[in-house]
Specification:
The chain is α/β, with parallel strands linked by helices and 364 residues long. The protein has 13 helices and 15 strands. An eight-stranded parallel beta barrel has the order 1-4-5-6-9-10-11-15, surrounded by eight helices. A two-stranded antiparallel ribbon has the order 2-3.
């Protein structure tokens, strides 16, 4: 069994000891005091991730957070080996410029870039960025975008390309990236699955229970195999681990303590309007009920009551969280993109508590 990879999260929208809202229609900022996404703090988070053995940090994208490329380029100068999983939006730039930016980034950081390709958020957000395609059109364009970028990264001679949404003439890249960035890509719709099977090196899913994740993995793996490709699989989860299970659950429950029920209801209504199939699947785990939040042993959906996107957390003792990770590995997960509230402190809880157990179990 190949070793798993562990990644952390860069809170470029802000951090908190409470739950911080994300995209997909989420309207709250946080349930407790915010730590703003200032460079000195983000550097601390990145250095904590590096110190605790995480391979890279994921940076989000959207109207609600800082730009991923500029922020991580600055942080890279304060770290040594940490990689950056940088959000790339095909609807916001030309594929040739994106390929060139990635190559430059590799040169400036000594090859520490991978890209998380985001086909789009909600249509209202996309229009704010000047993108007026519908959801299926965005996925079709993403496939064309990655066709072009891949050929540029492969250092092909100048070429023309004309698709339904994108066209280039005599596109070239004089200095290709070294190494070639890995492409991370996620999505739960049929259109997303096709793009993933054709282009993804790593397919990402939000934190559904292991069996549901396995069903998605099996589907993408078969689609990729039919195209003569293989894909690794990653999952996006929050984590709360402590010396004892009771201590961890007390932290989780404390995040919702004092949160107004009306706030939860309004947030759920906003998230239900999301166009994202993945967001719908997250909401279906708890159905909006604050009393049915443990959706699998050790998997808590309380984050998703208030946060758009990844809405589940592994909660328990260090041993219990390590065992849940092993369940996901058995389901086919190779890479774990983790975060906590706050990201700074939880990087140490996981790094000092769970990581040694994974090492002893032979997973790292």
């Amino acid at each position: 069994m190949a070793p798993i990879s562990l990644h952390w999260f860069l809170p470029t929208a802000s951090d908190s000891r409470g739950i911080v809202g994300g995209g997909h229609g989420a309207s709250i900022q946080a349930t407790k005091t915010l730590r703003g996404p200032r460079l000195p703090y983000l550097v601390q988070v990145a250095q904590a991730a590096e110190y605790n053995g995480f391979e890279s940090v994921l940076s989000p994208t959207g109207l609600w957070c800082q730009d991923a490329w500029l922020t991580t380029a600055a942080i890279s100068q304060h770290t040594k080996r940490l990689k950056f999983l940088v959000a790339l939006r095909p609807g916001a730039m030309s594929p040739t410029l994106a390929a060139q930016m990635a190559a430059t980034y590799q040169d400036l950081t000594g090859g520490r870039l991978n890209v998380n390709v985001v086909a789009g958020g909600e249509s209202t957000e996309q229009r704010a960025f000047g993108d007026f395609l519908d959801k299926d059109g965005r996925y079709a364009r993403t496939g064309e975008f990655l066709d072009i970028v891949s050929r540029l990264w492969d250092h092909e001679p100048p070429f023309d390309y004309r698709g339904e949404h994108l066209a280039v003439e005599q596109a070239r890249l004089d200095f290709p990236p070294a190494p070639r960035p890995q492409v991370y890509f996620g999505g739960s719709s049929a259109a997303a699955a096709t793009v993933a099977a054709e282009h993804a090196d790593v397919f990402l899913t939000w934190g559904e229970p292991p069996q549901q994740a396995k069903e998605k993995i099996d589907r993408i793996r078969e689609l990729a195999r039919a195209r003569g490709r293989s894909v690794r699989f990653g999952i996006r989860l929050h984590t709360i681990s402590r010396e004892t299970s009771a201590q961890a659950w007390a932290v989780a429950e404390g995040m919702l303590a004092g949160v107004d029920e009306r706030m939860i209801q309004e947030q759920q209504e906003a998230l239900r309007r999301s166009e994202s199939e993945g967001q719908r699947r997250m909401l279906d785990l708890h159905g909006g009920s604050a009393t049915k939040l443990q959706v699998h042993p050790g998997l808590w959906a309380g984050v998703g009551l208030l946060r758009g996107g990844a809405g589940t957390a592994m909660v328990g003792s260090h041993r219990e969280v390590a065992d849940l990770i092993a369940e996901y590995v058995a389901a086919g997960i190779d890479e774990f993109v983790l975060s906590g509230y706050p990201c700074l402190e939880e990087a140490y809880w996981f790094g000092e508590g769970v990581r040694p157990l994974l090492q002893a179990d032979g997973l790292l």
